[in-house]
Every structure is written in structure tokens, then in C-alpha cells.
């Protein structure tokens, strides 16, 4: 539940209206100007439709220097950000050879595996020498090594399911697996704030898609009842399959899914549950097993558990864990398994080693320390930000904390001011977030020390004062932790 | 002072911003301030200024609501490319609160403009034409209708 000051809402709409109007004026003058000049591209079809890239050209390019900043070191707690300059008002950006060492608050480096690790990296280098960087073939051809088999067993055991299948890319895991699981005649009910990969997979499957209000189990129940009563769109026959897709932690809100209620509703109406744990696997829960462990949901109740290794394990790729029959079926049918290149072997080794560290099987307690540290860091940072008067979203224990900015001009102002003080933050605007609700998203890592966090707080407070985003009075007001029934520990 | 922004179920990012609080107020404030602007720039009578505001409002809203089709970004893979903004709002459901508000605004503007110009002739004709086109374009029966193929697809 986001609370906006009314004046801020009105001024944000007005700012976007102004930006839109100026963009249209520039487009018109460009069209008139181009009508006068000759062009020698007769007979060629346009690359994109006239106004499909309006947002990119007229709004995104103006503040392009805040997005996609290249880095020149591993994304650890501190990172080298390459400096760029522009001669034509941000239309093109040129890299210089200099880079600044900045505090990294933007990488999803939840457990600190993003750079050299004393246990994982030597094993990965050995694996790189023994196997090669890439298997250069799909899993069914020549792309399955012993490491792949070990990885799938390791992931299945870690997540708590009988079997797992691993693909080389996290996005492709969702968009290639959902069409295999459900097709025409089926119903997908997805949370309104689900990630684009899920939306693409759902659209590609051919099933009917319905959306329920974000994280509201009551609305999910209403949608389910309505849809089951109505049946398929024109024939009103019963649905062949109903699947409810939710995420563990929503990356733009930092909120944790209300899994126990959703699972009980799905059991009542006999719908399948697909849980996307991209951000929550490895980051929350006592042993890092994700949102099921945190909220006390039995993994046998969640039918399909999906996750990615990019966030907490410092690698790449995604997995699907489920029953043995499901995984066997996917191995026969899923295009990501049959035709796409398998996950590179050193990356697979990194995942196996990271899981061993988390579970303490490497002989030290670094895993437990990391998990405790990320929980402490997140709670400390969130509490301090809220005391300063920022509007911070997300639940307690979630390492993702978006700070609300709202006005479009504050997006580049906040980002550039923080960069000037050597803190690298990620800002997100429309269309990744709703129009009004632009935010700066902070991702806390276990490799941030207490001094790093205090420096970050000072810089963010200063930038926040300059841009005027302390929308709440600076008092310890706990607004966003009021989730009624779930006890998060 | 503070309002709660409830999450919507509208997946179309092009129209979802219209469901958040504060849009109606912003719209009315923009109209009022543009009237003040026209008055101060052109030094005309208040009625003339309202007529100018009404006609400018007609041009701008007709172009952006009923002429331009699709969305200004490419992420949705072009599924709304045949629909104007008016046809995209509220997922195509007719007679919602937003649609009713947007139909009432040009009518109120018309009444103000014709009253303050004392129903005199050239302005009255132009205003009436504008409001007629605006209101007919917003009828539920005109959903996805292209008269004589104007603004139809290639």
C-alpha cells in the first residue's frame, strides 16, 4: 500500500504532461524538418512504427546517463563505474578510460558471491580448465556433463523437491517453460506485478490470462470463483487446467508474497501454484531456502518452484523444481532443454559451491554468517531510512528496498547526486513501474559492512534533502510492516 | 494530505496511470490555468478565452484519445496497435467512472464557453461542432467503429 502526498501526485501528472507535450512538439518539428530535407530510402519499410519508440526517444534518452552504466570490476560491495560523457545532450554517450570506485547499492548480490570467493572461485577455475567455458551444444546433444547432473540433484535437494531441471538463462526459464505446462483451454491467473518473463511466457502459451490485484488473496479467490463459474471464453466449457503464478519477492516492491493464504485458496479450488523465487531463493529464510521456509509453507504444496541463480548464487541460469514426473515431462518437451545451449559448466560449478557454502558443507560457517548478515543489514538499513522520513516499500527481512521518488525530474537528480558522492544506485521509472510511482531501488548485500551502510545512509539523506523526497515526517513511523496475519520469523 | 494508491489490475501501462488518485484534479487544474494563460497572452474577453481553451482542448484530446493508436513504448509487443487510447482505457469496459468523467468535461467546457460568449454566432457554431464530435466519439456504440474507414488500419 503506497501512500502519496496529494500535491506530489498532482505535480507528477503535470510534469509528465509537460514532458509529453514537449516530446510531441519536438516530434512535429522533426517531421516538418525532415519533409524539407531529402531522403534516399525510398521503398524501405520503417524499422519501427511511428510512435512506438516515442517514450524511448523523448523521455528515456534525456536521462540515459542514469541507466545502463558500464562497470569495470566485479560487482562486489564496491564497484568501479566507468565515467561517460555526452556531446549531444545524452543522445549518445561515450565512455572514457577513467572509472570511479563507488559503493554498490544496485547489484543483486544478496549473499556476496558476486566477486572472488575463497571457496567457490578456485573450484570454478579448475572446472574452467577441465571443461570449457561453454558446452556449445544443447543438453540432449553433448551438453550434459557430470557437473550438470550433480547440479540438478543439488538444486532439488536444496529447494526441497524430488527433482529439478536447470536451463542456461533465467528469463528463458519462465518464457520457455510456461508454454510447455499450459496451453489453449487453460487459465493462467497471475499477480498484476509479475515480471515480464512470466508475462511473455503466459502470452506465448495461448492460455487465457487473468490478473488479480497484487498480493491480495481475497481478490484472487474472487477471480478464481468467477472464472471457474464462467468457464472458457466462448464455449463456457470447464477449464482444462488452472495455474496461479506468483513471485516470492517482488523485485520492484520488495514485498514478500502472502504464500500460505494463496496456497490454501489454490488447494480449495484445485488450481496449480507456480512460484517464481528469483529474488527470494538464497536470500531469505533461516537456511536461505526461500519464501517457503520463511513463511512455513510445505514445499509439497507448491506444485512448481522456479528460481534463478543470478541473484544470490553469483552465477547465471534458472531452475524448475517439481515432482519427478513433471521434470521428466519437461526434459522431453521443453525447448530450453532440447534446443538451447546448456548452462556453462564453470557457472554450474559456481552454483554447486555456493550452495555448499550456504549449507555449511564446505566446513565453515560462512553461509550462516552471510545469511545472518544480510538479514541484519536489511533490517538496519530499512529502519534507518524510515526514521529519516523516506517512503520505503517492502517487508521486514526483504533485502530489496525501493525508495519512492514520484516526480520524473527527481529520478535523474537523485541518481546523479548519489553518483557524485560515489554511491551507485539504480533508479526505475515508467514503464517498468506505474507512471506515478518512480523509485530508487536499493539492494542490500551480505558483503556490505556496517560502515558502508552508514556512509550510504549519509549520502542518501543528503541527496534526499536536495531532491525533497522525505515525504514523511522524520519520526519512527512503521507504515509498511503492517501485514496482518503473517509472523515473519 | 496523503492518499493511498491501491494497486490496479490493469496490465496496459499506457492507460493504467489514469486509475491512480489525483488525475481528475490535475486535468481540471490544467484547464483552468490554460484559461488564465490565454487571457494573459491574448488580452481577449473571458468568453473568447474560454472558446479558445475549449477548441484547443478539443484538438488535443481528439488527437490523443481518438486518433493516435497503440502505445508509446514497445514492451507490449503491439497488442494494442489497433486501439485508440479511449478504446484501451479500463480494458475496454464501457461506462466506467473514468469514462463518464471524461465525457462530462468537454460538455461542461462547452456550457461555460457558450455562456460566457453570450451564445454569439461564430463561436457558438464552432463550439457546438467541437462538442458534438467529442461526445459522439465517446459513445459506447462507437467502440472500435471506424466511420468510412477513417483512421482504419492499412
UniProtKB/TrEMBL annotation, chain A:
One of its GO terms (molecular function) is pyridoxal phosphate binding. The keyword Lipid metabolism applies. Its EC number is 2.3.1.50. PANTHER family: CLASS II AMINOTRANSFERASE/8-AMINO-7-OXONONANOATE SYNTHASE, LD36009P. Residues 101-460 form the Aminotransferase class I/classII large domain. The lineage of its organism: Eukaryota, Viridiplantae, Streptophyta, Embryophyta, Tracheophyta. Pathway: Lipid metabolism; sphingolipid metabolism; Sphingolipid metabolism. Belongs to the class-II pyridoxal-phosphate-dependent aminotransferase family. It is found in: Endoplasmic reticulum membrane. GO terms for cellular component: endoplasmic reticulum membrane; serine palmitoyltransferase complex. It comes from the Eukaryota. This is serine C-palmitoyltransferase. SUPFAM superfamilies: PLP-dependent transferases. GO terms for biological process: ceramide biosynthetic process; sphingosine biosynthetic process. It is a single-pass membrane protein. Its cofactor is pyridoxal 5'-phosphate. Keywords: Lipid metabolism, Pyridoxal phosphate, Sphingolipid metabolism, Transferase. It catalyses: L-serine + hexadecanoyl-CoA + H(+) = 3-oxosphinganine + CO2 + CoA. CDD domains: KBL_like. It holds the Pfam family Aminotran_1_2.
Automatic annotation (TrEMBL), chain B:
It is a multi-pass membrane protein. Its main location: membrane. The gene is BnaC06g13840D. It comes from the Eukaryota. Pfam families: ORMDL. This is (rape) hypothetical protein. Keywords: Membrane, Transmembrane, Transmembrane helix. The chain crosses the membrane at residues 20-42, 101-117, 123-140. It is found in: Membrane. InterPro entries: ORMDL. PANTHER family: ORMDL PROTEINS. One of its GO terms (biological process) is ceramide metabolic process. GO terms for cellular component: endoplasmic reticulum membrane; serine palmitoyltransferase complex.
Amino acid at each position: 500500500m503506497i501512500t502519496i502526498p496529494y500535491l506530489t501526485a498532482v505535480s507528477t501528472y503535470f510534469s509528465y504532461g509537460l514532458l509529453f507535450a514537449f516530446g510531441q512538439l519536438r516530434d512535429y518539428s522533426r517531421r516538418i524538418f525532415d519533409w524539407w530535407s531529402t531522403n534516399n530510402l525510398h521503398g524501405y519499410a520503417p524499422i519501427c512504427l511511428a510512435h512506438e519508440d516515442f517514450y524511448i526517444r523523448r523521455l528515456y534518452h534525456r536521462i540515459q546517463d542514469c541507466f545502463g552504466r558500464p562497470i569495470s570490476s566485479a560487482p562486489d560491495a564496491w564497484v568501479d563505474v566507468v565515467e561517460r560523457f555526452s556531446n549531444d545532450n545524452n543522445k549518445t554517450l561515450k565512455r572514457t578510460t577513467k572509472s570511479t570506485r563507488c559503493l554498490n547499492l544496485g547489484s543483486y548480490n544478496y549473499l556476496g558471491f558476486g566477486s572472488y570467493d575463497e571457496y567457490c572461485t578456485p573450484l570454478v577455475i579448475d572446472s574452467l580448465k577441465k571443461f570449457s567455458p561453454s558446452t556449445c551444444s544443447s543438453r540432449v546433444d553433448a551438453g550434459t556433463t557430470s557437473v550438470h547432473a550433480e547440479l540438478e540433484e543439488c538444486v532439488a535437494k536444496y529447494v526441497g523437491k524430488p527433482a529439478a531441471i536447470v536451463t542456461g538463462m533465467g528469463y528463458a526459464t519462465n518464457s520457455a517453460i510456461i508454454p510447455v505446462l499450459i496451453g489453449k483451454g487453460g487459465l493462467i491467473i497471475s499477480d498484476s506485478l509479475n515480471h515480464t518473463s512470466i508475462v511473455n511466457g503466459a502470452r506465448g502459451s495461448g492460455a487465457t490470462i487473468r490478473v488479480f490485484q497484487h498480493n491480495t488473496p481475497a481478490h484472487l479467490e474472487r477471480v478464481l470463483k468467477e472464472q471457474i463459474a464462467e468457464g472458457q471464453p466462448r464455449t463456457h466449457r470447464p477449464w482444462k487446467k488452472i495455474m496461479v503464478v506468483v513471485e516470492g519477492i517482488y523485485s520492484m516492491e520488495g514485498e514478500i508474497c502472502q504464500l500460505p493464504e494463496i496456497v490454501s485458496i489454490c488447494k480449495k479450488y484445485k488450481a496449480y501454484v507456480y512460484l517464481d523465487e528469483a529474488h527470494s531463493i538464497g536470500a531469505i529464510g533461516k537456511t536461505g531456502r526461500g519464501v517457503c521456509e520463511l513463511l512455513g509453507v510445505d514445499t509439497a504444496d507448491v506444485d512448481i518452484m522456479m528460481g534463478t541463480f543470478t541473484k544470490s548464487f553469483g552465477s547465471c541460469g534458472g531452475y524448475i523444481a517439481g515432482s519427478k514426473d513433471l521434470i521428466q515431462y519437461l526434459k522431453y518437451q521443453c525447448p530450453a532443454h532440447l534446443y538451447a545451449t546448456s548452462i556453462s559448466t564453470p557457472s554450474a560449478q559456481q552454483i554447486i559451491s555456493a550452495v555448499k557454502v550456504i549449507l555449511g558443507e564446505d566446513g565453515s560457517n560462512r553461509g550462516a554468517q552471510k545469511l545472518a548478515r544480510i538479514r541484519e543489514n536489511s533490517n538496519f538499513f530499512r529502519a534507518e531510512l524510515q526514521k529519516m522520513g523516506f517512503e520505503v516499500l517492502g517487508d521486514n527481512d526483504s533485502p530489496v528496498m525501493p525508495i519512492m521518488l514520484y516526480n520524473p525530474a527527481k529520478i535523474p537528480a537523485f541518481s546523479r547526486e548519489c553518483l557524485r558522492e560515489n554511491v551507485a544506485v539504480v533508479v526505475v521509472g515508467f514503464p517498468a513501474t506505474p507512471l506515478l510511482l518512480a523509485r530508487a531501488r536499493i539492494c542490500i548485500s551480505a558483503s556490505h559492512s556496517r560502515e558502508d551502510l552508514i556512509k550510504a545512509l549519509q549520502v542518501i539523506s543528503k541527496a534526499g534533502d536536495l531532491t525533497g523526497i522525505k515525504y514523511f515526517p522524520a519520526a519512527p513511523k512503521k507504515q509498511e510492516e503492517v501485514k496482518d496475519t503473517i509472523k515473519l520469523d | 494530505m496523503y492518499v493511498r494508491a491501491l494497486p490496479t489490475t490493469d496490465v496496459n501501462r499506457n492507460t493504467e496511470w489514469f486509475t491512480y488518485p489525483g488525475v481528475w484534479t490535475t486535468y481540471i487544474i490544467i484547464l483552468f490555468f490554460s484559461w488564465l494563460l490565454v487571457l494573459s497572452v491574448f488580452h481577449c474577453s473571458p468568453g473568447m478565452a474560454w472558446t479558445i481553451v475549449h477548441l484547443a482542448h478539443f484538438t488535443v484530446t481528439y488527437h490523443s484519445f481518438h486518433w493516435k493508436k497503440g502505445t508509446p513504448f514497445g514492451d507490449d509487443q503491439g497488442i494494442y496497435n489497433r486501439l485508440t487510447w479511449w478504446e484501451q482505457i479500463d480494458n475496454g469496459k464501457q461506462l466506467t467512472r473514468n469514462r463518464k468523467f471524461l465525457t462530462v468535461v468537454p460538455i461542461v467546457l462547452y456550457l461555460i464557453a457558450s455562456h460566457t460568449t453570450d451564445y454569439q454566432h461564430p463561436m457558438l457554431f464552432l463550439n457546438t461542432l467541437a462538442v458534438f464530435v467529442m461526445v459522439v466519439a465517446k459513445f459506447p456504440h462507437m467502440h472500435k467503429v471506424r466511420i468510412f474507414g477513417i483512421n482504419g488500419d492499412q
